[in-house]
Amino acid sequence: MLNKNIKEEIQKAYSQFLSAKSLTPRYGQKLMIAEIARTIGNIQMDEDDQRSADSHICVIEAGTGTGKTVAYLLATLPIAKAMNKRVVLATATIALQEQVVVKDVPDVLHHSGLNFDVSLAKGRGRYLCLSKLDRILSSDDASQLIPVCEDETSIISESDGRLYTQMMSELSEGKWDGDRDNWPEEVEPASWQRVTTDYRQCAGRKCSHIRNCSFFKARDALADADLIVANHDLVLADLALGGGAILPAPEECIYIFDEGHHLPDKALNHFANNIRYKSTIRWLGQSEGQWPSLLQPLAKATYFVEMAGPLEGHFKAVRSIFENHLHVLQEITASVDRSAHTPRLRFEQGVAPDALEQLALRLRPALSDLCHNLQKLYDELGELIDEEYPVVPKVDLESVYPVLGSWLARAEATLALWEHYTHTKMDESWPFARWITLVEFNDVVDYEIVASPILAAKTLSKDLWSRCFGAVVTSATLTALNSFDRFKYRAGTYDDSVYTTVPSPFDFKENGTLVIPKNAVEANDAQRHTESVIDLLPEIIDDAAGSLVLFSSKRQMLEVYEELPREFRIKILMQGIESKQALVEKHKKAIDAGRGSIIFGLASFSEGVDLPGKYCTHVVIAKIPFSVPDDPLEAALAEWIEAKGGNAFMQISVPDASMRLVQACGRLLRTESDSGKVTVLDKRLISKRYGKALLNALPDFSRTF
Questions:
Q1: How far apart are CA 411 and CA 400, in angstroms?
Q2: Rounded to whole angstroms, how far apart are CA atoms 484 and 658?
Q3: 518 burial via Cβ count (<10 Å: 0-12, 13-18, 19+)
Q4: What is this structure's pTM?
């Protein structure tokens, strides 16, 4: 319970933090601390120390400048410790995760006087697998190494050989901890893939290298942590494994999802299934061909070899079905426009053609048999590794284990995809989107087959919200059109959860102006709008200042750039030419040198880009950021809503555009002393009925229309 002692501890920590940093209290920050503390602190526990049925989720929108990190840490940590629970702080990206654990959290704890143990959590894929590295370096003939992944070559280049030798040296001398993010140079994905692992490939506590395993050392450090800093993907991956596999069990956790507006989309990525058809045929053929040589060192494990007998046949049976039915994919996609930016065939209401359903029904039993056989072999090999005196050298067993694990994971993923195509009649309570994308590489066309739930709400409700002890979801943009309905709809949080918005400390009316130029045109006339943007930009932008121009379409951005006067173009830094980070650094250097600079960016520049003060005094938004009409998930969601008698444009398109528009406007004022203007070059904001709703949801800038 939120008793007097805990309240005093939170108040004392907040006062000490403000005093140490010479800060004054922020009204929104105080409200945020109080709201979180009230929600989490009033969770009731039964006699088994479990949460009883009550409101245990706090969804809180807090704009830039509120000081969210301070608020949610000071409010949750003392309560969690009193309730004997752990706090898992999940950020949207690994980069933000590093910033939080290296800079933000230590700063809060140091200046508040609170004393809590903090640990950083990452997935296996961010850590070196010492078993794999040792096997590569101890192999006399690199060509004898069996590739774990289909695209992985067994031949190791000289440069990779030197890299792996250096990694082993740095590791053994204690100069490196095996964390990819702590290696001094960028490691190419293909080079890293050979020396990392995943859940299925990892032998876990049975591995010979367990004592020196980078991942398990990091994981063991979580055991005593009061605060674990993770990211959304890791939390979702842990939940997919049943919860408690990497992180503490959800029932023991109070989750904090920072940048929480990303959570539903992140979840959809985890719940979607996809395979590439021809790629799967190649993988099946390679695996079938590799199996005899892989089995050879295990000859003395007679029981295992007997069990392994049918595997080659299972691979062959599945491959045969795939090869014999390639024509089904060719016929179904014959009408797809190959010249389109993304050649794709989406199945209306998720209902696939009968020929594809029949193929799925043929594949399902064959894939089930393959998965069953692989699972038996995988389990048996795990038991052999675990034996004190195995009949086969442990090093040979451990060389086969990750390959089997990789095959099992891929077979399971392939089966999961085709399961979703066996019966595709629309389910109103759990709608799925299904589509095929044509992927061309070196003049060879492959067929990427996808099945994805349209909304993440149902799974998040079942696996996360219903299980966790408590949760805080926060972001600067959780509402759309001044309502939390969009977030609830997509994330599955409950109606009785706490939803609140706390005020920003910024004086928007005094420091910012929203402008719609007199000559702006409606952006639904694409060509006329592009011509208007070309004409207006040189007029409205002060090329001696720092400006950010945001486009919804890469095509329009390129067209506008090409048609602008040369003397204006030389000030422009355009997204796609180099990395986002390099672009921002060049922009800041130009501003510091007094030359002025203009960034042309797409959606990714509408959030997560910090250009305070003089680096951005003008944000130009080319048009209202409605969703791209050919996005298959958005199209399927709109279709489902229309089928239920709803209005997809008003229920989905307008709220989504509202949130993106608020994010884009949020690039202007990054500190309380910033000032500038936002210009929208789309007349629909004042000419259409929905424009008023979009305007009402924007920050309270002074307005010039």
A1: 17
A2: 12
A3: exposed
A4: 0.91
By C-alpha distance, which of 58, 10, 46 is closest to 497?
58
Q: What b/e sequence results for 362-390 when a residue is b if at least 16 CB atoms lie within 10 Å of its CB, and e otherwise?
A: bbeebbebbbebbeebbebbbebbeeeeb
In this structure, the number of other CB atoms found within 10 A of the CB of residue 27 comes to 12
pLDDT category at 55 given cuts 50, 70, 90 is confident
Task: Write the pLDDT tens digit of every residue in 121-174.
Answer: 999 999 999 999 998 998 754 444 555 555 555 578 889 999 999 999 999 999
Whether the Cβ atoms of residue 460 and residue 492 lie closer than 8 Å to each other? yes
- Whose tokens are 């284990």? That residue is 401
Provide the terminal-to-terminal Cα distance of the chain, rounded to the nearest Å.
52
The conformation of residue 697, written as its DSSP 8-state character, comes to T
Phi/psi of residue 202, nearest 5 degrees: -85, 130
- Radius of gyration of the chain from its Cα atoms, rounded to whole angstroms: 28
Residue by residue, DSSP assigns 65-119 as: TS-HHHHHHHHHHHHHHHTT-EEEEEESSHHHHHHIIIIIHHHHHHHH-----EE
Torsions phi, psi of 275, nearest 5? -140, 160
Q: Are strands 227-231 and 344-346 parallel, antiparallel or unpaired?
A: unpaired
Phi then psi for 422, rounded to 5 degrees?
A: -70, -40
- The Cα–Cα gap between 636 and 344 comes to 14
Query: HSE (CB half, 13 Å, CA atoms) of 2?
Result: 17
Helix boundaries (H) for 256-337: 263-271, 277-295, 302-308, 311-324, 326-332
Tokens of 566: 């040369």
